[in-house]
Amino acid sequence: MCKTQVEASRQEKDGYDTTGLNKGILFLMTIPYVLIGTVGFFWYRHSRQQKKKATV
Hints:
single chain; mainly alpha
């Protein structure tokens, strides 16, 4: 659907600016990486705390 819209706007002289579409795609692409990184960070921190408690 997005590809069709971009191609249609290229053919028109007064088409809309497609940079907003590119920024939206990048924004949607970064959200999963941020979420996975956050979960991984807290998991790593929790496992380090468990190892410290086991050695004490």
